[in-house]
Design goal:
The complex is a heterodimer. Chain A is an all-alpha fold. Chain A is built from ten helices and no strands. The N and C termini of chain A lie far apart (54 Å). Chain B contains eleven helices and seven strands. The chains are: A mainly alpha, B mainly alpha.
Amino acid sequence: MKQTSTIAALLLAGAAALTLASSAGAQTAQPAVKPDPALVEKYVKATFGKAPPEWQARIEPDETLKVCNQYRNEPPSAEADKIVKRELAKVVFPADGKLIGDWKEGAKIANNGRGGQFSDDEKTVSGGNCYACHQMEAAELSFGTLGPSLTNYGKDRKYDPDEVKQAFTKIYDSQAVVACSNMPRFGANKVLTEKQIIDLVAFLFDPQSPVNK
Amino acid sequence: MKRTALGWALGAAAICASVALTIGIVRAQDAEKEIERYRAMISDPMSNPGFLAVDRGEALWSEKRGTKNVSLESCDLGLGAGKLEGAYAQLPRYFVDADRVMDLEQRLLWCMQNVQGFDTKDVVARRFSGPGRASDMEDLVAFIANKSSGMKIDLPLKHPKELEMAAVGEALFYRRGGVMDFSCATCHADEGKRIRLQGLPNFSKPGKQPQETMGSWPTYRVSQGALRTMQHRLWDCFRQQRWPVPEYGSDAITALTVFLNKQAMGGEINVPSIKR
């Protein structure tokens, strides 16, 4: 306890000196130990400052992630509403209105965890890596548990078109549905293409897809 | 005789492998148990190639190098010049002479430069070993960390800069970024989660999980055929997080290590361990 309060005192002093109202307003939801954001950025620069500029830009938190980081993914409801509104504006629905693609392609994308790593060739096509976090078709045993099981996803929702739209939205930008969701914003962050996303929606919603078998 | 024993071992391994294959249809929980069994099978210290790195590191520690033609034996790792026993258990820590908080690898580089007058460019280029490329850093860390085996993680966490490191490390742990919006906490802040079949330790609170993890690095990675340090582990985490390449021996890595070791305080060190 003594240690915690010492650190808090030290860091709050630093924060007060360097920042103004920005951190003060959020005090109640903060953990006891919270260093000045400028200090954290100094560390980030020390470690990632030699990376190519486009790579450094990727770890520059946008308006949404700033809030998620500040509240450790549990923003107050007013902030959460702002995030959902902001992210929803980023979702681009297919011009032809077709939200369900090819489930066989979707199955491949769900299994593919490649892309986006500094060890990857720039030309690597990114996968969705859905199985890293979700159970999907029942026959696949190697699935992660960070996200909920999606087995029988379409069947359980009676293939409802509103649910299809919601699933497209969720994959395109998870935070357009749940503020500070742990799930990547695949479309908004340009990890997956529109075609890949509708193929994944098909993997979830096509009655022929093994997800619904 | 030896050959027979080896043949036996290979036969047993083949049987294990075929058993593992035939039960391919079992449920995920059973698959997880199989992985546990595999881990238990490889964690035999007598056959851990990580101890070869310990031996190589011992030789490097006493080798005279640099413009001053001296060994590292007068390097102070925090407990006094040349004192190795228990030094790793208290790292990272603040060093007055460098006016910095350093982990073991940063400190070794500092000693090479300042004690030995040794140009570290080549050593840094070989920071991670690869096929046909030995790493002095991996070997030295294996040797020095092994001198803390059986001891408990015990960071000083008294100097303001050490406290700053712990607090910044915690903030970095929760800082999201990269094209996937991942932070360390995305995978390591909840109980009983896994990626595919890989179990994920929860580092968000102090206790057994961080203790067991931090107490088992450096480790010999069977899949990589190499002794790996925490610098490499975090480099690999950032790769999987889709972050940029982190600079070796830099402050954010050290800050995260301080935070993780803070969560792991009191954990027993047993290194080099062996992992998948």
